[in-house]
Amino acid sequence: MSRPHFGLTGLAVMGQNLARNVAHKGFPIAVHNRSAEKTEQFLKEFGHEGDFTGSTDIASFVAALEAPRAIIIMVKAGKPVDDVIDALKPHLSPGDLIIDGGNSLFTDTERRLKQLTAEGFLFIGTGVSGGEEGALKGPSIMPGGSVEGYERVKDILTTISAQVDGEACCTYIGEGGSGHYVKMVHNGIEYADMQLIAEAYDLLKNAAGLSNEEIGEVFTEWNQGDLDSFLIEITAQIFQTKDPDTGGHLVDYVLDKAGQKGTGKWTSQSALDLGVPVTGITEAVFARFLSALKDQRVAAAPQLAGPSGTYNGDKSAFVQAVRDALYASKVVAYAQGFAQMDSAATEYGWHLNPGEIATIWRGGCIIRARFLNRIKEAYDTQPDLQNLLLAPYFRDAVAQAQEGWRTVIKVAVECGIPIPAFASSLAYYDAYRRAWLPANLIQAQRDLFGAHTYERTDKEGVFHSSWG
Ligand code: NBP
To answer: Choosing from 110, 175, 190, 283, which is the catalytic residue?
Structure first.
C-alpha cells in the first residue's frame, strides 16, 4: 500500500477532528502528537474510521509520509508552532510543505514563510474556523502563503471544507500571512457580532422586561429573516436550555465575565497600526475587559448613581427596533472588518478578493450568515467598493433600520443600559456619512500648542498661524 502524502501533527480537539474529517473523505493521513498517549488513544478510538498511519515520534511520522510531503500543524499558537517546525525540519526534504492551521498571529506567519521559503520548503498559514464541530464536519478554511503549496493540497482542503450552494468554503486568500490575517479579522467580527447580540439581550431583558422564554422566541424569529446566522441560532438554543441541577435557565447561572484568547485584541491592535477606524470590534474587546472587572463592578453597583428604568412604550415595536439596531450595527461591523482587510492588503502587498472571502465565510465558520451572500453580491457588482455601507443593498437596509437604531440607543441611555457596540456603530455611521467633522478644531489646537501646521479648505499648502 502506498504511503500517504498528507500528515497532521497536534491531536487536541481541532487536530483530531480535522484528521478524522480528512480520513472520512477518503484521503489517507499520517497522524502524530507530541505526547504519544494522545496518538495511541486517537487510533484506539477513531482508527477504524479511515486510513490512518499513526506515529508516536516525529521521525517515524515524517518517514511514514511519501515525498513531496504536506504536513498540517494543529498546535497552540505561538512558540509551540516554532517548536514543531524546528522538530520537523531535520526530517523533511526540500519542496515539502508545512501548513500551520492554528490561530497564529499573521506577523509570525510572515516570519515563518520567509524563513522556510529561504530554506527550500513551502509554507501555508491557514485560518480554520468553525470550532471542533466545524473541523469534523466542514470548516471554513483560509489558506495564505505559497500558491504552489496550495495547489498541492487544494483537493484535500476544498473537499474537507464546508460546502454552500455547491461551493467550497475554502479558497486561496493571498500572499504572506494574509490567510491568518483574514482569520483574525473573522474572529474580530465574531467578537463584535457576539457583543451586539449580548447588548440586544440586555435591552430585551432589562428595558423591555422579557422573560428568557420570550427572548428565546425573539431570537428564533429573528433567525428566520435577514439576521439568519449561526450565532443567532445558538443564542435561541441557549435561552431554551435548562439547568439540570436547579431547573432554572442555565444562562442565568453563567458568571458574567467574558473570556478571550486574543484574536479580537489582535484585530484592534492591527487596526490601530493601520489607522483604520474599527470601532465595533474594539468596543467588543473592551466590553469583555470591563465584564472581567466583576469584583469592581459589584463594589461600584451600590455607589454609582444612574437611571435604571424600563421602557414603557409599545414592547413589540421596541423588539423590532432592537432587531433593526442589531442589523444596522452588524452591517457596520462587517463594513469595518472589510475596510481593515483592504487597508492591510495595501500595506502588506496582498491581493485579497473580498467577494471570495465573504463566499468562504458563508459556511463552516462561527460568523456564517445569510447576510454574507449580500456582501459577496456587493463586491461582485463593485469589486473596488470602498465601504460596504455604500453598496446599494446595505445603504438602503441601514437607512430603513436607522430610526429603530436611534430609538434603541435613546432608550438605552435613558435606562442606563450600556450599549458600547450599538452606540459606537451608530457614531461611526454618523461620522462616515458627514462631509464635515469638527476635526478642523483639533487641527487648530494642534497648530496653536505645537505648531503642527494645518491645511486650509480654500487654498493648497501647509499653514501655521499665530492664534488668539
Ligand atoms: P490547543 O490550542 O489546546 O493546543 C494543544 C495542542 O498543542 C496539543 O496537541 C499539544 O500537544 C500541542 N502542543 C503544545 Br500546547 N505545545 C507544544 C509544543 N511545544 N510542541 C508540540 N506540540 C505542542 O489545541 P486546539 O484547541 O485543538 O487548537 C489548535 C489550534 O487551532 C490553536 O492554534 C487554536 O487557536 C486553533 N483553533 C482552535 C479552535 C477551537 O475551537 N478550539 C477553533 C479554531 C482554531 P500535547 O498533547 O503534547 O500537550
So the answer is: 190
20 by Cβ neighbours in 10 Å (0-12 / 13-18 / 19+) ranks as buried
DSSP 3-state assignment of 398?
helix
Name the nearest CA neighbour of 126 among 186, 66, 83.
186
Is there a contact between 92 and 123 (Cβ–Cβ < 8 Å)? no
Look-up of cell digits 474599527: 278
- Rounded mean pLDDT for each run of 10 residues along the chain, 468 residues in total: 89 98 98 97 97 97 97 98 98 97 97 98 97 96 98 98 96 98 97 98 97 98 94 97 97 97 96 98 98 98 93 96 98 98 98 96 92 94 96 97 98 97 98 98 98 98 97
C-alpha cell recorded at residue 204: 430585551
CB-defined site of ligand 1, < 6 Å = 10-15, 33-35, 38, 74-77, 80, 83-84, 102-103, 128-129, 131-132
* Kind and range of the H or E run holding 145: strand 140-145
Residue 289 burial (CB count, 10 A): 11
Could you tell me which residues come within 8 angstroms of residue 65 by beta carbon, excluding any fewer than 6 positions away?
3, 4, 5, 6, 7, 30, 71
Joined grid coordinates for residue 356 = 471570495
Ligand 1 atom nearest to CA at 34: 48
Among 183, 265, 330, 376, the active-site one is 183
User: pTM higher than 0.85 for the full model?
Assistant: yes
**Cell numbers that stand for 391 in this block:** 453598496
- Give the DSSP per-residue string, 94-134: TT-EEEE-S---HHHHHHHHHHHHHTT-EEEEEEEESHHHH
| DSSP 8-state class, residue 90 | G
Q: Catalytic: 183?
A: yes
CA dist 112 → 76, 78, 109, 117 (Å): 16, 11, 5, 8
CA nearest ligand 1 atom 7, residue = 75
Three-class SS state of 168 = strand
Of ligand 1's listed atoms, the one at least distance from the Cα of 11 is 9
Nearest to 202 by CA among 376, 400, 15, 411: 411
For residue 145, report the phi and psi dihedrals to the nearest 5 degrees. Answer: 115, -130
3-state secondary structure of 31: strand
Ligand 1 atom 13: residue of nearest CA: 75
Q: What angle do CA 144, 78, 169 make, to 5 degrees?
A: 30
The answer to whether residues 399 and 188 touch, using CB atoms and an 8 Å cutoff, is no
